[in-house]
Amino acid sequence: MLRTVKPRNARSKRVLEKREPKVIENPKKTLFLRGTSASELVQTALNDIHSLKKPLTIKFTKKNAIHPFEDSTPLEFFSQKNDTSLVLFASHSKKRPHNLTFLRTFSHRTLDIFEFSLDPDTFLPLSAFKNQKPIIGMKPMLLFCGAPWDSNARLQALKSLFMDFFKGPTVDRVDVEGLQYIIQFSTPEIPPQTEVAGEAGPAPKIHIRAYLLRSLRSGQKLPRIELEEMGPRMDLTLRRVREPEDEMWKEAMKKAKKVEPRTKKNVTMDVMGDKLGRIHTGKQDLNKLQSRKMKGLKRGKDDGEMVVGEEDELVEKVKKTRRE
């Protein structure tokens, strides 16, 4: 259990209030740290991912004797202390070389953990690509290639992790000039017998590529877009997974009532973004319609119909004769 901290002064009270749950949460920060032993390969990968996620990052430089799957309490402590929701941990050992561990927290408690092996043969850092890099703080576009991202339960959870990890701050509008790079996640097809979660089979391999968007002249109004690889180039193989508990996952997926917009009846939006409304009116009785009173519009007795008000006069005459 994490201890509850009581504010000692007004400054610490304001800091704690910023960390409290909100209807619209703050952008998720990521904590980067390494274990007691980490190869140069995973340290380079750690630094490259840290460069892509700036400025929503916190990086530790000292070694940490942490084993996330055996005991994730130290990472929960660092998450609460630094107000970070995501953790990337780099380590290296003889049993698990070139190891990268992604961890998500909910209310600073461990939600799920994914451990990957970084392929040293295909890895290329940012420095290997001699081109411009995106401006710090730009939101990337995320592209998931492959049917298993939607059909395999394990990869669906992994897709949710990558979207949380790389999406950046939530914004209402995006300027076209701000779309500077794209991150692609691809995976090969998984045999049908291994698509069921928990069934033995080969570990899925994830290919991560990052591309710059180049706008070139096309002779028309719209420019021609080309992709230029900017790095890092990483191939990750899934090793171990700790799935979230059902109760915690259900609690984490809850949405505040104020966030969900109220549905308006009979109001829709078309493809062009125009608001359309439907009005329901009751059945209209034309006999009771009030029109301009003119003698020329009245119907006489010869027309086969009574003049307006004549029917009431006739009923009164019949009642009067009965009384007499």
Automatic annotation (TrEMBL):
<dbReference type="GO" id="GO:0019843">
    <property type="term" value="F:rRNA binding"/>
</dbReference>
<feature type="region of interest" description="Disordered">
    <location>
        <begin position="293"/>
        <end position="324"/>
    </location>
</feature>
<dbReference type="Pfam" id="PF04427">
    <property type="entry name" value="Brix"/>
</dbReference>
<dbReference type="InterPro" id="IPR039770">
    <property type="entry name" value="Rpf2"/>
</dbReference>
<protein>
    <recommendedName>
        <fullName>Ribosome production factor 2 homolog</fullName>
    </recommendedName>
</protein>
<dbReference type="GO" id="GO:0000463">
    <property type="term" value="P:maturation of LSU-rRNA from tricistronic rRNA transcript (SSU-rRNA, 5.8S rRNA, LSU-rRNA)"/>
</dbReference>
<dbReference type="GO" id="GO:0000027">
    <property type="term" value="P:ribosomal large subunit assembly"/>
</dbReference>
<comment type="similarity">
    <text>Belongs to the RPF2 family.</text>
</comment>
<feature type="domain" description="Brix">
    <location>
        <begin position="28"/>
        <end position="247"/>
    </location>
</feature>
<keyword id="KW-0539">Nucleus</keyword>
<dbReference type="GO" id="GO:0005730">
    <property type="term" value="C:nucleolus"/>
</dbReference>
<dbReference type="InterPro" id="IPR007109">
    <property type="entry name" value="Brix"/>
</dbReference>
